[in-house]
Design brief:
This protein has 139 residues and is an alpha+beta fold. Helix content is 46%, strand content 22%. It has a single domain, classed as Glutaredoxin. The strands form 2 sheets. It has a 4-stranded mixed β-sheet with strand order 2-1-5-6, with helices on both faces. A two-stranded antiparallel sheet has the order 3-4. Helix 4 packs parallel to helix 6.
């Protein structure tokens, strides 16, 4: 019985895990298989970002699409992380400036070389976000 309970607990944790990975995991995975990296620039105080986290990123269809076709990395613009940005290791805010990100939330797609391929700013409803992801995959 304890084994069954343990297996069910592990399955539940895996099933409800979010779609995001760390930036390091995304870079390493991208180098191995070329799956694009989708960055979301957000902040804890950003109401539209919070709404998307609750309504879009928790949706099973969105999670499946993100896990299957992208390395999804959520980057808090208030943190002191560093990114590989156009050939350099830079703080997040320097990348925001270099890529001319006008606000948050912003979604940036990086190619297999880590170069910016596509960028869009704003919020999405679930259906629109799924269409956005599918359109990016086709590019």
């Amino acid at each position: 019985m304890k084994i069954l309970l343990s297996i069910l607990t592990i399955f539940a944790c895996l099933s409800f895990a979010g779609p995001e990975v760390s930036y390091k995991e995304a870079i390493e995975g991208n180098k191995k298989n070329g799956k694009p990296i989708l960055l979301e620039f957000y902040a804890d105080w950003c109401i539209p970002c919070i709404e998307m986290e609750k309504k879009v990123f928790k949706d099973p269809t969105v999670i499946k699409e993100l896990k299957s076709n992208f390395y999804f990395v959520r980057l808090n613009t208030e943190k002191e992380e560093q990114l590989f940005c156009e050939g350099e290791i830079l703080p997040i805010l320097d990348c925001v400036e270099l890529w001319e990100i006008p606000g948050i939330p912003t979604f940036a797609v990086l190619d297999k070389n880590g170069s910016l391929k596509h960028i869009t700013t704003g919020t999405f409803e679930k259906k629109t976000f799924l269409n956005f992801l599918k359109a990016i995959r086709k590019k």
